[in-house]
Amino acid sequence: MKTSTSEGKHGIQWTARNQLDDFDFADDLALLSLTHEKMQMKTASVAAVSASVGLSIHKGKTKVLKFKAENNNPITLDGETLENVESFTSLGSIIDEHGGSDADVKARIGKARTAFLQLKNIWNSKQLFINQYQSEDLQYEHQGSSTVRS
Fold first, then answer.
1. pTM passes above 0.70
2. What is the mean pLDDT of residues 28-46?
3. Which member of 27, 47, 71, 114 has the greatest number of CB atoms within 10 A?
């Protein structure tokens, strides 16, 4: 990756002194750029460096997400237009064209709701309710309390 981005600044400003060019994890790569031209150059450069070591980029799996882009021209790879998307998931987080975390938070709340509802029968179980009070009675007896529960 460093070889393909070494010819200049093509990423986004991350801190006062650092640029962020990409996110990579295992065999996934997300390239970042401020302009269409720089993104096109970076895409071509990554493809060329990959090919030089015997790797290829799967064009069908390669997507483009534009955030507040003024240039709507497509990004191409070997003459083929790459698909534009409105969002993608990276390491479990949803990244969308609006740049906020709303979609990700909604998805996480939905997953939590689903998990909670799968346990609904347990939460509503009368056996759990009885066992809870039996457990509390044992605690009172153990502490030497004379409290009686009805």
1. no
2. 88
3. 47
Burial-class residue 105 by CB neighbours within 10 Å (0-12, 13-18, 19+): exposed
Backbone angles phi, psi at 28, to 5 degrees: -105, 145
Angle at 74 between CA 80 and CA 42, to 5 degrees: 80
Vertex 81, ends 76 and 86: CA angle to 5°? 100
Give the residue among 24, 105, 36, 114 at the shortest CA–CA distance from 70.
36
Question: With bands split at pLDDT 50, 70 and 90, how would you rate the model's confidence at 132?
Answer: low
Strands 83-84 and 80-81 come out as unpaired
Burial (CB count <10 Å: 0-12, 13-18, 19+), residue 139:
exposed
